[in-house]
Design brief:
It is built from 6 helices and 2 strands; from the N terminus they run αααααββα. By secondary structure, the protein is mostly helical. It has a two-stranded antiparallel ribbon with strand order 1-2. The termini are far apart.
């Protein structure tokens, strides 16, 4: 039988509501603090945008676009639907913060 210690208990615990909210705010802050991600969010806007539109309008290289859009997708700020990127509720929060 393997015994657990205090460190194992700490690692295995999920954050409480307060800590989870703080972590979400930190993530939103990191996303909004990057100028390329901010521009992507603004360009996607409330109507959405295709990859080609984003590459053209923001004059991004494919690799930079992929890196930044993957971050936004992973953080659930953007989703891809029917060939367009659209903001999630969290993404819309960032858009509103920077208007």
């Amino acid at each position: 039988m393997v015994e657990t210690d205090d460190l194992d208990d700490l690692i295995m615990t999920k954050p409480g509501p307060r800590e989870a909210k703080k972590m979400e705010h930190d993530m939103l802050n990191r996303a909004a603090s990057n100028p390329v991600r901010r521009k992507l969010i603004q360009e996607i806007g409330i109507y959405g945008a295709s990859k080609d539109e984003l590459l053209k309008n923001l004059a991004l290289q494919e690799t930079a676009f992929k890196f930044q859009i993957d971050y936004l997708l992973h953080q659930e700020l953007v989703k891809e639907e029917e060939g367009k990127y659209r903001l999630t509720d969290k993404g819309l929060e960032i858009l509103e913060m920077h208007r």
